[in-house]
Amino acid sequence: MTSPDIAIIGGGNAALCAAITAVEAGARVLILETAPKSYRGGNSRHTRNFRCMHHGPLGPLVDSYTEEEYLADLMKVTGGKTDEGLARLAIRTSEECLPWMEEHGVRFQPSLSGTLSLARTNAFFLGGGKSLVNAYYRTAEKLGVQVEYEAAVTHLELDEDRVTRIDYTQNGQMHTIAPKSVVVASGGFQADTDWLARAWGPAAKNFLIRGTPYNRGVVLADLLDQGIEQVGDPTQCHAVAIDGRAPKFDGGIVTRLDCVPFSIVVNKDAQRFYDEGEDVWPKRYAIWGRLVAAQPDQVGYVIIDAKSLELFMPSVFPPIKADTLEELADKMGLPADALVQTVSEFNDACGDTSGFHPTELDGVTTTGLNPPKTNWARPITEPPFYGYSLRTGVTFTYLGLKVDEHAQCSVGNRPVTNLWAAGETMAGSILGQGYLAGFGMTIGTVFGRIAGKEAAAHANSN
Amino acid sequence: MQIQTDFLEEARRQAEICNACRYCEGYCSVFPALHAERAFSDGDLTQLANLCHNCRGCYYACQYTAPHEFDLNLPQALANVRQDSWEELAFPRAAGKAFQKNGVLIAIVTVIGFALLFWAARALSSAGGEGFYAVLSHNAMVAIFLPAFLFPLFSIAVSLRRYWRRVDAGPFEPAHLVKALKQAANMRNLKGGHGDGCNFEDEDRFTHARRAVHQAVMYGFLLCFASTSVATVMHYVFNMPAPYGLLSLPKLLGVSGGLLLVVGCFEMIRLKLRSDRSLGATAAFGGEMAFVGLLGFVGFSGLALYALGQTTVMPTLLAIHLGAVLAFFLLTPFSKMAHGFYRLAALTAEAGRKG
User: Fold this and answer.
1) Are B61 and B194 in a shared domain?
2) Is the terminal CB of chain B with fewer CB neighbours within 10 Å at N or C?
3) 251-290 in B: which are within 8 Å (CB) of A?
């Protein structure tokens, strides 16, 4: 094909927002999506909501959610490791994004069952992230955006402060194009487990990747190698504890397990290692990703009894079930004597459980146990007993391209005149660590639209 | 009563994955019902299957469809269970098994219907009758069609009773039926939750095409049925036998209904041909198409009879039309036509569960 005005590398939310904005500004736009059509959309396929500032009710959102409150929520989860300027830009712009999303085909629904706590802050996509991705592809193609699937970008040629060409392969053929503007929206590198292992150590080989297998960081590595400015700690990734039986890639939302607060968690030697009742699960699942990663073989085992089975969201795989702890240990490959002893020590340390309340910090705690269980501590006595294995599931990586408020990349201390980045690949510019539900889609939408606008302005004036 | 176990097992496997995800909660009645359970009995799955209107919104929105190893295709899984439930719950069961999936058998029954009516017209013509009754006496028509109408009603009543037990629905309450009728009247479950319609003829594009076409068929049929009912009342209560003039109630209802039915069935067939068959009960495709064809033909032959009623082809057309009507009536409990009754039962049961 003849070279388009703008090439967008990636096919998820940020890429699509950039493509739609750019084509509406009059540019000829090409999307290079490395995945086949059935897997298009990167990690956006697995998302479900968009965190949005708003003054008064907006779409599916109730009440108000102010800039200051939003920023405070963000600062809390990142421990202050946040670029406040860019964060405020994302937060402030989110309010105008919601109607824009609706205009471009995205449909929202009231907060899902079990997520009422997010009804004020997060707008849920009807059907989830893949339906958002589908709607954007429909809109983009109708507006004239050309989409190439299974188009794997291998190299961006950088000539001083300008990208002069893009090489990509498709169906075994090499293609080269020379667009006027380039937007990189191709995610992080978490699906490249060798890269993860280099950053994390060999333990990372045992991690599961919760999202797309196509985020291998090829373009990211290519650009960093050429001196494009980077941001974010390479050893940081967002990881949570998920069902150990989840697929290696792409398990997504269903692999979450919400039973830890009602359980004891042991390692492969049947020893407890952390306070399972420290806080409500939505505030602790990320910590448990790291805790499990630090255990031998990077695996944990959750043990509950019959009285706790229905206190949490159903799991995608049924729990392992046994009438005795010995049988459960046997089925889960744990040393039976050690498990029985651990459970019995735990049970002996439990006290008055009459104040047990599954949805709030109830202070039902163990005494004299190390580590303690400080809430929801009820003895594990009532057969049948149930078990799940836990593994570390990586959601995304923080290492990425550093951008300014125009979503523009830089080399040395000057901007690259025709290179912008949006979405996960530059999220490290805002988030240093931690994560706030729905903020990834906010970053992708806000910076996707900025990148699309800037890239089109550049293309149109050259 | 055993619905094919592998269909149920597959539906159960998929429902359990859906229950851990819940992204589709806003699309239709299936998901709130599904999310209310932790485990799925055969009856639960039969109920979910009959709540599903095969709008396919959940399929195209699903991040776990093939090539993902979870290989979700909930519309197909539920279509298979649903199709099987109609066969298993039919009375007599053998008729359900024979006709639901078999377009050829449906066509054969229709041809037998024609033949029977031709024979009847020849053997039972009445010298004294007027109009259609000159071809086939009123009494002969009643003798053929009264049982052909009452038997399917009885059969469906038996099936619905079986259904109610199978899904373990609560006590029947008219208020729940009213709720269900409202949902059916505007096909809420084909609106997609957002009101943009459903996915059917063009992958993930939302349109109202299927909903509009379905309503044309449904209301067309109901108008035709109303026409016949009104005529029956006029005949017996007001002693006003057919034929009726153009501006009479039976004709106004019948002609408008017939037109809707013909256009609706024609468009439904076109939509079905464009749709992805692997998202439905593939084995039943032929049976469904034959049924829609038969229903459309009932409307078409009725209109032809109206248009050419004063000509010499009238007796032939009458036999053909009545033959098609006969086949349609007799096949109602054993063809796609049954779905309306099961859907209504499912929506009623659901209204009861929600209280």
Assistant:
1) no
2) C
3) none
